[in-house]
Amino acid sequence: MPPRLAADKTDAELVEHFYARAARAETEQRRRVRQTTRVGQVVVLLALLGVWWAAAAVYPPVLVPGPAATVQAFFDGRATLWENTPITIAEIVLGFLVGSLLGIGLGIAIAQSRWAEIILTPYLVVSQAVPKVALAPILIIVLGYGLASKVAVAALIAFFPLLENTIAGLRQVDPDSLRLLQSLGATRWQIFTKLRVFTALPLIFAGLRIAAVLATVGAIVGEFVAGNRGLGALLVTSMGTFSTSLLYATMGVLTALACGVYLAARSGERRALARYNLAPPER
Amino acid sequence: MARRLVDPRASAAGAPVAPGTAATAEYWMAREGQAAAVRARRERLAHTGARLLVLAAVLGLWQALASRYDVTLMPGPAQTYAGLRRGWPLIATAAVDTSLEIALGFAAGALIGLILGSLVGQSQLAEGILHPYLIAYQAVPKVGLAPMIVLLLGFGLWPKVVLAALAAAFPVLENTMVGVQRVDEDSARLFAGLGASPTQTYLKLRLISALPSIMAGVRVAVVLATVSVVVTEFVAGRIGLGAVMMLGYAQLDTPLVFAALVVLTAVGLAYYFAAVGLEALVLRWFNLTPSTR
Amino acid sequence: MDATDQVATRPSRRGPAAEDRAPRVVIRCQDVHKFYLAGSRSVYALKGIDLEVREREFVSVVGKSGCGKSTLLHCIAGLLPVSHGEVAINGERVDKPGRRDIGLVFQTSALLRWRTAWDNVLLPAEVFGLSRAAIEPRVRQLFRLVELEGFERQYPNQLSGGMQQRVAIARALVHDPAVLLMDEPFGALDAQTRETMTLELMRIWEATPKTVLFVTHDLQEAAFLATRVVVMSARPGTIQAIVDVPMPHPRTPDLLARADFVETVQRLRRLLMAQ
Fold first, then answer.
1. Which strands form C58-62's sheet, in the order they lie side by side?
2. Half-sphere exposure of residue A99, counting CA atoms within 13 Å on the CB side?
3. Which of A39, A49, A85, A217 would best serve as a mutation to test chain B binding (most B beta carbons within 10 A)?
4. Gyration radius of chain B's alpha carbons
5. What is the dihedral of CA B96, B99, B105, B108, to 10 degrees?
6. Is the CB of B54 less than 8 angstroms away from the CB of A235?
7. Residues C10, C50: contact at Cβ < 8 Å?
8. Is C170 within 8 Å of C143 (Cβ atoms)?
9. Which residues in chain A are contacts of B230 at CB distance < 8 A?
10. CA distance A172 to chain C (A)
C-alpha cells in the first residue's frame, strides 16, 4: 500500500502541496486557451481575407474588387466619403434622439394607465411583426428627399422597442418596495421618481442600445430609397454605376460607423447601469 | 366557453335546499364563481370593444388626413383599396415572390444558425475564438450589405434569399448557443454519470432543453428575414412587393405604394403568427414552457 | 469520540478464515484527497478519506454544509477526479464517469420534462444501448416496486415531489447496478413527504440486493436507514467517526421511539456539535 499523504504533514503543508499543483495546472491551461484562441482568431481572419482575395482573383474586378483595389478606392473617393458620412451620422443621431424621446415619453404615459396598457398590448405585439422599414418610401413622398424623411424612418424604427421596454420596465416594480413607499405616504410622483424610474432603467437602457442600432438601419434604408445623399445613397449609386471598388470602400466606412454606434451604445448602457449599481436585464 | 346560468339552489333531486346546511355554502360558492365568470367575460368584451374602437379611430384619422391632402401625397383607405384592385395582378405575383424569398431565406438562415449555434455552444474554445466576429456580425446592419449582394447575385430571387438568411441566422445562432449551454446542472451530471457521449447528451438533453430559447430566436428571425427581403427588394427593384412599392414611388402612384404596403404587412404578420404557432406547437409537443426572453 | 464507535477500516480480529466469510468490499476509498480552485478561493474538500463499503450495506454520510459529503459522492461516481488516492468500485478503479455498475439519484430529481415517467426510467438503457424490448419488462416491474403503477404516462410536472423522486429511484435501478449513490435525495421535499419517502426507500432497498451510499443532513433519517453512519467534518473534509447502527432490518417506524435508537441519534448529534 502506498504511504499516506497526510502522515507527516500539517494541514497547511498539504494545502501548499495541492495549491501549488492546482495553480500551476490552471495557469498552464489558461495560457493554452488564450494562445489557441488568439491563433484561432487570426486563422479565421486570414481565412476570411483569403476567401475575399481568392474571389477577387476568380471574378472580374467589376464584380469583386480585391482588398488592394478597395483600399485604393478609399483614397480616391475620400472626398465623396468625407462629404456623405456626416449626413448619415446626423440622420442616425437625430433619428435616435427623436425615436428615444417619443418612445420613452409615450411609454411613461401608457404605463400610467393599466387599462391603456391592456388595450394597446396586442397592437404593440403586432407592430413587432410589421416591417417598419417598408414605410420609408411613403415617408419620403410625404417629407421629401431631405434630412427629415430619413430621420423620420430612423425614429420610427427606433421608437417601438423603446416603447415596449419602457412599458415593461415600469411595470416590473418590486411589490414590497412599492408597499414600503406607500406606507411612508409617498405621492404618485414620488413613487415614480424614487422607485419606478430605477427599476425601469435596465430595460430602458437596453432599449436605447437596440434603438441606436435600429436608427442606423433606418437611416441606411431611408438613404437606399431616396438615393441622393449619405453613405447608403452612395452604396446604391455605386452599385448602379458598377463602381464596385467604391462600393466596397463605402461598405468599409459604413461598417466602421455601425460598429462604432454599436460599441458606443453598449458601453453607454454598461456605464449608465454601473452608475446606478443596476444589473443588466435578463437577456 | 358559454356557461349556462344554472340555479344552484336546485339540488340533483330537484328539491330546494334548506338554509344553514353545508349545501347552502356550496350554493353561495357556486353563485360567486358564476358571478366572477360573468364579470370576466364582460371585461374581455370591453377590452375587445375598446381595441376595435382604437382601430376604427386610426382608420378614421387616416381618412381624415387623406381628405385634407392631395391624393398623390396621402391616399385614404378608399383610394388604397382602389389601388389594390387596380394593381392586383402585379401585387399578387409580387406577394408570391416576396413570400417565397422570406420562406427560403428564413429556412436557410435558421438551419445555419441552429447548426453553428449547436457546435459553438458546446465548445468554449470555439465560442472564445468566434466571439469578436459574432459581435461584429451583430453590430453591422445586414441591410447595408444589400447593394453589394445585389451587385454580385443580380436582381432576381437569390440576393434576397441570401440576405434574409444572413439576417435570420444570427438570432437563431445566439439563442441556440445560449440554450445549449444553460442546461440544468443535475441533468448534466446525470448524463455524465451514465457515461453518455457528447452526441447523446446533445440529442437527448441539450437540444431539447434549448428548444424554448431556439423558438424565441426563430420568432425574431422571421421578422428579420422579412425586413431584409423588403430592403433588398427596394435596392434590387425587380420582383417582390418592395419592388412594387418602389415602382409606385417612382411614378408617384401613391395608392399603389400603400396597397403594396398593406399586402406586405399582411405577409409579414402571417409569417410572424406562423412562427408563433410553430413555437406553441413545438413547446406543447415536448411539454416545455416558453422562454422568458 | 466515543470508544464504542467502530471504524470500518480496522482489520478484523477474527482471523483469516473470517475474512472470507465477511461480505466483499464493493466501494473502496484509499487515502482520497480532493483539492480544487474555485476562482481565487482554494477548497480542500476531502482529506485522507478511507472508506470501505461492503456488499448489501446501507451507509449514510452526514455532516454540516460544506463538509464535502456531496463531493465525496461525486468522486466515487467518477464525476470528479481525485487529487490523490484511489477510488475503486467492485475492484475496478474509478477515474472517469460512466460506470454501469452505479446508479445515481440527485436532490433535484433531474427528470427530463419532455419525457413521460416511463421514458425517463428508460433513459439509462437508451444511453447504454440496451434493447428496449429486453428492458421494458424490468421497467414495468420497477414501477410496481416504487408503487407508481398507473403513472407511467405522466409527465414530471404532473407528479408530486415525492413521486418524482420515486421515478428517479426507478431510473437509477433500471440497469440493475450493484451500487446506488444518493445525494440528499429527499432534501427538496417537505417534512411529511420526506418521512414517507424514507420508509419507501427502506422497503425498496429490502426488496433489492443493492449497496447504498446515502448522503443526507438529517441525522434521524441517516440512522434509520443505515447499517453504518459516516460522520464528516468540514475544512478540510475528513471522516470524523463511523457509527454502527446495529438494529436489525427490516426497520419499522416504531424504532424511532426506541431508547437505543434515540441514543444513537444523540451520539451523532454530539459528534457534529463537537466539530
1. C102-105, C179-183, C211-215, C58-62, C228-233, C238-244
2. 34
3. A217
4. 27
5. -90
6. no
7. no
8. yes
9. 131, 133-134
10. 27
- Tell me if A119 and B50 make a contact (CB, 8 A cut-off): yes
Q: Which of A156, A157, A132, A153 is nearest to A143 (CA)?
A: A153
pLDDT in tens, A134-167: 999 999 988 889 999 999 999 999 999 999 999 9
Q: Cell numbers 438613404 label which residue? A: A223
A126–B contact, CB cutoff 8 A: yes
pLDDT of residue A9: 75
**A247 vs B234: CB contact, 8 Å cut-off?**
no
What confidence tens digit (pLDDT) does each residue in A162-195 have? 999 999 999 888 888 888 888 888 888 888 888 8
Amino acid present at B142: K
Is B192 in contact with C97 (Cβ distance < 8 A)?
yes
What gap in Å lies between CA C60 and CA C64, rounded to an integer? 14
Q: Is residue B213's pLDDT more than 90?
A: yes
Q: Give me the interface pTM, i.e. the ipTM.
A: 0.88
A window 151-190, beta carbon within 8 A of B: none
> Nearest Cα to B181, choosing from B151, B139, B209?
B209
- Across the interface, whether the CB atoms of A5 and C84 are under 8 A apart is answered yes
Q: Would you state the pLDDT for residue C2? A: 45
Chain C residue set in contact with A, beta carbons under 8 Å = 30-31, 33, 35-37, 42, 44, 47-48, 83-85, 236
Tracing cell 476570411 back to the chain, one arrives at A48
Q: Find the residue in C nearest to B212 (Cα).
A: C114
**The three cell numbers locating residue B201:** 447528451
Q: Rounded to 5 degrees, what angle do the CA atoms B110, B114, B120 make?
A: 140
Residue type, B293: R
A231: nearest Cα among A84, A74, A89: A84
| Per-residue b or e along B4-29, where b marks 16 or more CB atoms closer than 10 Å to that residue's CB | eeeebeeeeeeeeeeeeeeeeeebee
Query: Which of C30, C37, C85 is facing A26, going by the closest CB pair?
Result: C37
Is B269–A118 a contact, with Cβ atoms under 8 angstroms apart?
no
pLDDT of residue C5: 44
Q: CB within 8 A of C49, min separation 6: which ones?
A: C29, C31, C32, C33, C72, C85, C237, C238, C239
* Stretch among A1-15, B27-41, B86-100, B185-199 having the lowest mean pLDDT: A1-15
Q: In A, which residues are within 8 Å of C33 by CB distance?
A: 5-6, 14, 18
CB C210 within 8 A of CB C53: no
**Cα of A262 vs its chain's centroid, Å:** 4
Backbone angles phi, psi at A240, to 5 degrees: -65, -35
Q: Do A232 and B144 touch (CB under 8 A)?
A: yes
Residue of chain C whose Cα is closest to the Cα of B187: C110
Please answer whether residues A136 and A74 qualify as being in contact, where contact means their C-beta atoms are separated by less than 8 angstroms.
Answer: no
Say how far apart CA A50 and CA A65 lie, in whole Å. Answer: 13
Could you tell me which chains touch chain B, where touching means 3 or more CB pairs under 8 A?
A, C
Give me the pLDDT at residue B27, please: 78
C-alpha cell at C63: 455532516
Q: Are A274 and B284 in contact (CB under 8 A)?
A: no
β C92-93/C84-89 pair status: antiparallel
φ/ψ of residue C231, rounded to 5: -105, 120
Residue C124 and residue B200: Cβ atoms within 8 Å? Answer: no
Residue of B186, B191, B194 to mutate, interface with C, max C Cβ within 10 Å: B194
